[in-house]
Amino acid sequence: MNIGEAAKISGVTPKLIRHYESIGIIPKATRSVSGYRTYSAADVHILSFVKRSRTLGFSMKEIKKLVSLWRNKSRASLDVKNMALAHIDDMEKKIADLQEMVKTLKHLSKNCHGDNRPDCPILNDLAQPL
Amino acid sequence: MNIGEAAKISGVTPKLIRHYESIGIIPKATRSVSGYRTYSAADVHILSFVKRSRTLGFSMKEIKKLVSLWRNKSRASLDVKNMALAHIDDMEKKIADLQEMVKTLKHLSKNCHGDNRPDCPILNDLAQPL
DNA sequence: TATTGACCTTCCCATGATGGTAAGGAGTAA
DNA sequence: TTACTCCTTACCATCATGGGAAGGTCAATA
Q: Could you tell me which of A122, A125, B42, B97 has the fewest CB atoms within 10 Å of its CB?
């Protein structure tokens, strides 16, 4: 099948499929006589794997490793688990950061009249040297 | 003062100060005879404002608006509050997304032996067409 | 057969916020 | 004068993705 159909099935746009190929996430596609990329069901499976990994927030660098682990039948599940745990850690840090910001902003917003008057605790906070 | 000192006081690197100037977040700095940027306490105050706004997760686009509201003495606090509330919404969406990913990955990790064996529920999930 | 329209190709540029580096000028102190 | 630190601009990199241009291919239809 051509890149368009592979894109529809995998949920990865043609644009991104080419990009993934260029940075070595996926193997180089075979080509038709006229130069079109051609994909097998196995190729589409890799693309779906990448898509799902992105959905779970893994970076392309991590996904590159995940794909190679997936294709290596003698992998140790420990390696995969460690990647997952590290990624969970990263995300939990991000969540904590965001929650802190939300907390602060909610507090400031609560004290802001939110009317025509210029006085505003939010701006006062921002203008305060940290 | 020169850009280096303004950077130390405000916590914004010289690199970023120049960048902020170039994209119009802060007014163009006055220059010394030899071309060095010079900053007043008021200029540094703007930089601190930007820094604090970044700390609260606002985008540069939003900060541009916040700065202009801050400097507009006849602003309506409603405008500021609405920006804050919209930003809170954005962040809460991001938090929810991250929490969903964490939840899924934690579940998968719990079921992964994490040893020398290749069998791995995490990879099985990733390989599953969504 | 000629044309059309949908698909494919490569190449370059843009995003957003930040960092790095290189090449060169300015300021100051020994 | 040398040496060192600071400043200047300009370009490139990151990360994942999207947009668009210019041109080739394929299949169906007029």
A: B42
Nearest CA in chain B to A78: B114
Is the separation of the CB atoms in B18 and B3 below 8 Å? yes
Closest Cα of chain B to A19: distance in Å?
20
Instruction: Decide: helix, strand or coil at residue B18.
Output: helix
With beta carbons under 8 A apart, name residues in chain A contacting B105: 56, 84, 87-88, 91
Name the 3-class secondary structure at B31. Answer: strand
Instruction: Indicate the residue of A94, A114, A130 with minimum beta-carbon distance to B81.
Output: A114
* Beta strands in chain B, from DSSP E residues, in sequence order: 30-31, 37-38
Across the interface, whether the CB atoms of A123 and B80 are under 8 A apart is answered yes
What is the structure's pLDDT at B130? 53
CA–CA separation, B43 vs B2, rounded Å? 11
The encoded tokens of residue A18 equal: 């080419």
Residue A130 binned pLDDT confidence (cut-offs 50, 70, 90)? low
SS (H, E, C) B42-67: HHHHHHHHHHHHHHCCCCHHHHHHHH
Q: HEC string of A30-99?
A: EECCCCCEECCHHHHHHHHHHHHHHHCCCCHHHHHHHHHHHHCCCCCHHHHHHHHHHHHHHHHHHHHHHH
Identify whether the C-beta of residue B87 lies closer than 8 Å to the C-beta of residue B57. yes
User: Which residues of chain B neighbour A73 with C-beta distances below 8 Å?
Assistant: 118
Q: Which residues pair with A31 in a beta bridge?
A: A37
For A45-59, how does the pLDDT look when each residue is reduced to its tens digit (9 = 90+)? 999 999 999 999 999
